[in-house]
Write a structure and sequence with these properties.
The protein is an alpha/beta fold. The chain has one domain: 3-Layer(aba) Sandwich (Rossmann fold), CATH 3.40.50. 30% of the residues lie in helices and 28% in strands. The chain contains 7 helices and 11 strands. The strands form 2 sheets. The chain has an 8-stranded mixed sheet, with helices on both faces. The protein has a 3-stranded antiparallel sheet with strand order 1-2-3, with no helix packed on it. The longest helix has 17 residues. The termini are far apart. The protein binds S-adenosylmethionine.
Length: 240
């Protein structure tokens, strides 16, 4: 049984369970590109590397994964292997994932990029089934793109993941609504997957998140957010 997504009239997907939006009203693809992909220094940071790993908390509608994959595909200097490793307790249906891409169109949308992401969403939808709790691995782009989806509670599955992250996307609904995704123990488990230089991005600059990250060895910056949000977060892991 997949998680229900409720669509508001303006095309924004909502979670009934968490009573929050899956992404900002600026659009999921705009948020993915600006806050997460660019916020982690991509595509530049994967250039010159053989493999690059992104760790995400909250796979949701897959927009961050699809945007990262599209940015990788469009980059002539991309790394050879892209590994995207994400945690999700409540997978949504492939129908909602594909709908989320189409619903993300805004006045800023580059229609050529949207067309490419729609094609990638169809590929993801074609393998999206039987997501029981545990680890699921999917291969795309002739094996150059690997998605590891850990289905389960973040506190249980994140510490068990076998991945060293080059970039981290923290995307787990609002910290005030869903503190488990942002607790110090969750951030600690994230930090255990980081190395000096790992970049991290999020849309939230909640004090507890910034302070927790600093305490764990991240250099944290508040950056100009994607309107209507004033701020977004960028961080770099120094050392524990
Ligand atoms: C804002 S959405 C993520 C959006 C997503 N990154 C995207 O690109 O579409 C947050 C996700 O975190 C998941 N989540 C919330 N609490 C969780 C928990 N304790 N453990 C694992 N996943 C959780 C939700 O089910 C939801 O799909």
């Amino acid at each position: 049984m997949y998680e229900s997504v409720v669509w508001s009239e303006d095309g924004i997907p909502h979670s009934l369970r968490f009573k929050d939006r899956y992404h900002s009203c600026a659009g999921g693809l705009a948020q993915a590109a600006t806050v997460f992909v660019a916020g982690c220094g991509l595509p530049g940071n994967w250039r010159g590397k053989t493999q690059f790993t992104v760790l995400e908390t909250g796979f949701g509608l897959g927009l961050n994964f699809l945007s990262t994959w599209a940015a990788w595909e469009a980059d002539s200097q991309r790394c050879d292997q892209l590994h995207f490793c994400s945690v999700e307790a409540y997978p949504v249906s492939s129908t909602d994932m594909v709908r989320a891409v189409c619903a993300s169109v805004s006045s800023e949308t580059d229609m050529a990029v949207l067309g490419r992401i729609q094609g990638l969403a169809q590929q993801l939808a074609s393998v999206w089934q039987g997501l029981s709790p545990g680890i699921h691995v999917f291969h795309f782009a002739q094996g150059h793109v690997r998605l590891t989806l850990a289905v389960g509670e973040v506190g249980q599955v994140l510490p068990t993941l076998d991945c060293q992250a080059d970039a981290v996307f923290l995307d787990g609904f609002s910290p005030s609504i869903n503190p488990d995704m942002w607790s110090l123990s969750t951030l600690q488990a994230v930090a255990l997957h980081c190395r000096p230089g790992t970049t991290l991005a999020s849309y939230t600059v909640a004090k507890s998140v910034c302070e927790g990250l600093k305490q764990l060895g991240f250099l944290v910056s508040k950056c100009k957010g994607l309107p209507p949000k004033r701020d977004r977060l960028e961080a770099v892991f120094q050392s524990s």
